[in-house]
Design a protein that fits this description.
Chain A: It is found in: Cell membrane. The complex is a heterodimer. Chain A is mostly helical. Helix content of chain A is about 70%, strand content about 0%. Chain B has 23 helices and 27 strands. In chain B, helix 1 (about 1-15) runs antiparallel to helix 23, helix 12 packs antiparallel against helix 15 (about 485-495) and helix 20 runs antiparallel to helix 21. Classes of the chains: A mainly alpha, B alpha+beta. At the A-B interface, helix 2, helix 3, helix 6, helix 8 and helix 13 of A face helix 5, helix 9, helix 17 and helix 23 of B.
Chain lengths: ~325, ~725
């Protein structure tokens, strides 16, 4: 397994370089270093002299990819791309354009993001799998029919509607929990319960429908008939046999997401005032903060690759026939 | 039925727990305390006084740092009063030979203006580890190693703090920091033109910064600044080139607040910046408040500075202040509140709802909640809605010291220049774009149509017929009435574009508007604008682009028409009229005159006006020059004067001493809370509705036996 992981990590290197290159090119197609300077220095009373100083201070006065005036490897290394990208592979994200340490910011914001995303993910998985199994249990009945209709309706509704509706009903009308905010320690639960509930409910429609399809396909297999013939209860059949054999497609969609939970959720964090990583990238794009954008894209890519590797590994746990080769 | 009993018990426990304010977003320990709750939308980028320039930032910095001057909280027009200084400095003027000149000396003779500022002795800084000393009086936390810093994450982790007296050197140090090459002060270039020696200091510091290792401390005291000198422990002197009466306003901004040398050195230690231990993150001042918690992603907390030198609430104001209860606290010591908690609210809906629940003490009104908060009377008067009145919420409105306008690029061959034909074309467009309708449709009436660059409250702004724009309005029955469309058409024809077509070639007149708009809401505005142009049979082409490209086009003069706005830095007409000065031309001089308007007559008047004081014997003369300048601008119409926005803010009944202000930002110390009333009303407004929880529990209690029964039957069968 170790050799497999090492091999996959080595494959990841060119992918990360490519992602970094594309991010860099896309960012600088839209923004020039002058634009970045103006954004940081403000729009009032900014002189060309101040812009030149800002660029020189941060190394944005160099060419983007090729430095024709440099000698030797300096042609490639004495450029903005090399300056800003090489350090990331050593885990040094540097400072945001406003001078703040990016790694520290990420560490600070990761906790709140995970506090929402992790329980929402686990609870959501439990609820949707259980709901899908319930529909499977009552398959071809009115309950199943209306359950599927409900799923379609729920997946057709925008996530924003759940958030605003939830805040309106639970916090504004019923006044049961705060509308938004975040607190540490024991106070955290009252801020987390509503976004978690909304996260779980808003995810039920699409996931439950997908899982139901998998379970329905699985339930018609011979081993299920055998299990029933042995006299096992329907609950046991569904949870112990059907669920286990339907794990591969579920894992394919689920495990890859786990590392990305660190990245948080833009909409939820924004509406609930959660100081997580979700809005960090968007704020950085709006502020034309290339240092943060490239760091977040890089971390996102790394986490996605890790997620794919974990998915492959998880297959071997649920299906012993799968080998690392 | 043990299950039912359990369900009932749970319900009762829940009811007991949910007695009141379950939705309170603050720790229970804060209940009943003298804490003001507010919100911010955009995180402040800089809290270092030398860099901070935006409204988001000054909300915090103005409460912490104390420049020598401040604005009187209640008086209007805005009046400068001392903050840490003993008096508002009166400049001395000297000629090129160093000879003293009288106050009314001709500007041409004045080589230098000298401001001598004496600060009050005994003012002390907030507690801070940079001031902590050992028994020998040496700084305790200087030259810290990375190892020593390992356990330190925030300023609160330093076990000891100290303080010291404010001295003149701290102000001098901050002025030198304007030239610091790593800090990029937005006003450096402008001040380098004024303060003697600042530019030279900048050059010297740049050379030194290059020679030093990256991030190493740059000791500014090693570099002299000839124009800023220490007179004695409490007095310093600033020498400016020429005459610059507006400089006094700058002395009321955080750019000129004191920064102690030891604080700068403390924060420059290796390893500090990685932990966000910088002046940009943890400001240090002598003001009424200090920043004790800074998480700009979620919550920032200002607490009362225990070393604050003391100040009392003003006893005078403008007429009407007494009736409004704004003088009730006359002479009482400031600040009134102990703490201010600012929570980050990125979305308007949660912000608004928390205000209605009493969890924010004041709020603006977003367009989403406008109808819920306010209703417009038949005569256009603004009233609070019944819901707001029932809650005792009060509304404060004020016209902001800002202007939004549509500018013409005066370098453009079609709409620019000062020829009679292009002037008439611009005048026709000024008439046809109905600003009153725009304000009514798109701004819920929150603005007044502008007649010149000057907003109300700024010296030179005139009410009534004298302040009307005769090019655009007729004065009928005591009010301004926009000129009829026929007048605009006539002007257009005289401009050589009868019925929107070129009188010679017959080509239609097509004008291009460059804008950064592009969203759904903006489309309706632009459609409306296109219809305004269509009244004159002029085709408007809207060229939407992103902000960067828009700025670039304006810089290069590659626009024909554009939209921009300006917020006052200080309450002086110079701060608005300079936007049209030839010396500020965007293309030629990289200045702030985006229209590239250059009228020698206006420039001459502006040069005279900008060096005059509004008060005193030459005030009347200055007013006359401003009126002449405005008449010229109204005739030349380089802008279509759009509107001055009105700010609407709501405040709860328990929040006292609120008065809108645009330039004085250190307002937190004047705010007073009735905490008991707030607590009582919050409880009343936030009683939880428990029946949904009870219903859910009953449902569980009913379903659970059924599930258990089913399980038993299944097991029995197996």
């Amino acid at each position: 397994m170790l050799a497999y992981i090492v091999r996959r990590l080595l494959y990841a290197l060119p992918i990360l370089i490519g992602v970094n290159l594309i991010t860099f090119a896309l960012f600088f197609v839209v923004n020039t270093p002058d634009d970045m300077a103006r954004m940081q220095l403000g729009v009032k009373r900014v002189t060309p002299e101040a812009i030149a100083k800002w660029k020189a201070e941060r190394g944005y006065d160099k060419p983007l990819f090729i430095n024709g005036s440099a000698a030797g490897v300096g042609v490639l290394t004495d450029t903005i791309f090399f300056d800003k990208s090489a350090r990331m592979f050593a885990g040094d994200f540097g400072r945001a354009e406003d001078g703040r340490d990016i790694a520290r910011e990420i560490r600070t914001r990761m906790g709140p993001s995970l506090a929402i995303a992790l329980p929402t993910f686990v609870l959501g998985l439990l609820v949707t799998v259980s709901f899908a199994l319930l529909l499977t249990f009552f398959r071809a009945s009115y309950l199943d029919f209306w359950g599927v209709v409900l799923c379609v309706a729920m997946m057709s509704i925008s996530g924003l509607f759940y958030i605003i509706g939830g805040q309106y009903l639970i916090s504004k009308i019923w006044k049961l929990v705060p509308i938004s905010g975040y607190g540490g320690g024991l106070d955290a639960w009252k801020f987390l319960i509503l976004p978690m509930a909304i996260g779980v409910i808003s995810g039920i429609g699409s996931s439950a429908r997908w899982y139901r399809t998998i379970f329905i396909e699985e339930i018609s297999r011979d081993y299920v008939r055998t299990a029933r013939a042995k006299g096992l209860s329907e609950v046991t059949v569904l949870f112990r046999h059907v669920l286990r054999n339907a794990m591969i497609p579920i894992l394919t969609g689920v495990v890859v997401v786990i590392p990305l939970l660190f990245m948080g959720s833009l909409l939820t964090e924004s509406f609930f005032g959660i100081p997580g990583l979700g809005s960090y990238t968007i704020d950085a794009i709006n502020a034309q903060d290339f240092a943060v954008v490239r760091a977040m894209v890089f971390i996102g890519s790394v986490l996605y690759i890790v997620g794919l590797i974990l998915t492959d590994i998880s297959y071997t746990f649920v299906d012993p026939r799968i080998r690392f080769n | 039925m043990p299950l039912l009993r359990l369900a009932l018990l749970s319900l009762l426990s829940l009811l007991a727990a949910c007695s009141s304010e379950q939705n309170e977003p603050y720790p229970t320990a804060e209940r009943g305390k003298n804490i003001l709750y507010s919100a911010f939308t955009d995180r402040p980028k800089h809290l270092d006084p030398v860099q901070s320039y935006t409204e988001d930032e000054i909300t915090f910095t103005a409460q912490i740092y104390e420049p020598p001057l401040q604005y009187h909280y209640l008086k209007r027009p805005y009046t400068l009063i001392p903050a840490t200084s003993e008096a508002v400095p009166v400049p001395r003027y000297v000629d090129a030979q160093g000879g003293e000149l009288p106050a009314d000396a001709p500007v041409a003779q004045i080589a230098h203006s000298v401001y001598e500022i004496r600060i009050r002795p005994g003012i002390r800084y907030q507690p801070h580890p940079a001031f902590a000393t050992d028994s020998a009086g040496e700084p305790l936390y200087r030259d810290l190693s990375r190892e020593q810093l390992r356990a330190i994450e925030t300023l609160a982790d330093f076990p000891k703090t100290g303080t010291r007296e404010l001295v003149a050197d701290d102000y001098i140090y901050e002025i030198k920091r304007l030239a610091h090459p790593r800090l990029h002060s937005p006003i450096f270039s402008m001040m380098a033109e004024r303060i003697v020696g600042l530019r030279e200091l900048g050059t010297a510091l740049q050379g030194e910064a290059k020679a030093l290792p990256a991030g190493a401390w740059l000791d500014l005291d090693r570099f002299p600044l000839t124009g800023v000198t220490r007179v004695d422990r409490y007095t310093y002197r600033i020498t400016l080139r020429g005459k610059y009466p507006q400089f006094a306003y700058w002395l009321a901004m955080p750019f000129f607040a004191p920064v102690p040398r030891e604080v700068d050195r403390f924060y420059s230690q290796p390893g500090m910046a990685e932990k966000n231990l910088t002046l940009d993150w943890y400001p240090v001042g002598t003001g009424p408040f200090m920043l004790t918690h800074n998480n700009p992603n979620s919550r920032m907390v200002l607490e009362r500075n225990p070393n604050f030198h003391g100040e009392t609430y003003p006893c005078t104001g403008e007429p009407g202040d007494e009736a409004a209860g704004l003088l009730a606290d006359c002479g009482k010591p400031l600040p009134f509140i102990d703490k201010a908690v600012f929570s980050r609210e990125k979305e308007s809906i949660p912000y608004w709802n928390k205000f209605l629940q009493g969890y924010y003490d004041a709020s603006g009104i977003s367009s989403d909640s406008f109808d819920q908060a306010v209703r417009l009377g038949v005569g256009g008067d603004v009233q609070l809605s019944d819901e707001m009145r029932e809650k005792g919420i009060s509304l404060l409105t004020s016209v902001r010291a800002s202007i939004f306008y549509m500018g013409f690029n005066m370098l453009d061959p079609v709409v620019g220049g000062l020829s009679e034909s292009t002037t008439k074309l611009r005048q026709a467009l000024s008439i046809v774009i109905d600003q009153e309708e725009f304000i009514s449709i798109f701004m819920n009436g929150r603005g007044i149509a502008a007649t010149s660059p000057l907003p109300p409250g700024i010296f030179g702004y005139l009410e009534g017929e004298a302040g009307s724009n005769p090019v655009v309005y007729d004065w009928v029955d005591g009010r301004a009435q926009r000129k009829p469309l026929a007048v605009a058409k006539q002007l257009l024809a005289e401009a050589g574009w009868p019925d929107g077509r070129n009188a010679t070639s017959g080509e239609p007149l097509v004008l291009n508007l460059d804008t950064t708009s592009g969203g759904m809401g903006d489309k309706s505005r632009l459609d409306w604008l296109t219809r305004q142009f269509a009244k004159l049979d002029i085709q408007l082409v809207v060229r939407s682009t992103d902000f960067n490209r828009f700025q670039e086009k304006v810089r290069k003069g590659a626009v024909q028409l554009y939209y921009l706005g300006w917020n006052a830095d200080y309450p002086d007409p110079e701060n608005f009229l300079f936007l049209l000065a030839g010396s500020e031309g965007k293309v030629a001089k990289s200045g702030e005159n985006a229209s590239n308007y250059a009228n020698p007559e206006f420039d001459r008047l502006f040069e005279r006006m900008k060096n005059m004081e509004s008060e005193g014997p030459r005030g009347a003369e200055r007013l006359a020059i401003i009126r002449q300048s405005i008449a010229l601008l109204q005739h030349d119409a380089p802008w279509i004067y759009g509107f001055h926005p009105k700010s609407y803010t709501l405040g709860h009944v328990w929040l006292h001493n609120r008065k809108p202000t645009d330039v004085g930002n250190n307002i937190l110390k004047y705010q007073r809370l009735d905490v008991a009333q707030r607590q009582r009303l919050r409880q009343e407004w936030n009683r939880p509705v428990l029946w949904p929880l009870a219903a859910a529990l009953v449902l569980v209690a009913v379903l659970l036996p059924a599930v258990i029964g089913y399980r038993r039957r299944e097991r029995g069968t197996a």
